[in-house]
Amino acid sequence: MIKKHEQVFAISDLSNISKMILESVQNIQIIALKGTLGAGKTTLAIEMLRQLGVKSEMQSPTYTYIQAYKNNKDELFYHFDLYRLKDKQDFLFAGFDEFLYQPNSLVIIEWPEIVESLLDHSVCFVELNYIDDVRRKINWYVE
Fold first, then answer.
1. Which candidate, 29, 56, 80, 115, has a CA 20 to 30 Å from the CA of 126?
2. Domain formed by 5-119, architecture
3. What is the pLDDT of residues 61-73, one digit of tens each?
4. Which residues are CB-neighbours of 41 under 8 A, at least 6 positions away?
5. Mean pLDDT of the residues in the chain
6. Residue 139's closest CA among 11, 30, 9, 1?
7. DSSP bridge pairs for 67
8. Could you tell me the pLDDT band of residue 38, with boundaries at 50, 70 and 90?
9. Does residue 113 sit in helix, strand or coil?
């Protein structure tokens, strides 16, 4: 049975929401972030990476498609932004599928819709929706 979580939160509470999600999704390999433009997917991804121990400067992979990070435990993190990719074939042609399900790694994907068929296990789906300038609604579940 899939347990779904739902929360309305203030943007100022993003750190606590990130912590809550990470604590509730042990042993997953992919976090798939869905939501409207400007809802805060990148901000949430960067906060999660920070909480997972990434110390280096982090930025959105909007134009590079992927950013790779490592923490002091030698865990690898891949942050994708697929907004500009047309379809799954573009993802596969670029070889990005090789980053999925690597040992000792976590993948965070913004705009995962075009590759959902490749995400067949160990995935936390997160949907972030804009309510107003200070509040967001978030839903997450593991599949």
1. 56
2. 3-Layer(aba) Sandwich (3.40)
3. 988 999 999 999 9
4. 33, 34, 35, 110, 111, 128
5. 93
6. 9
7. 79
8. confident
9. helix
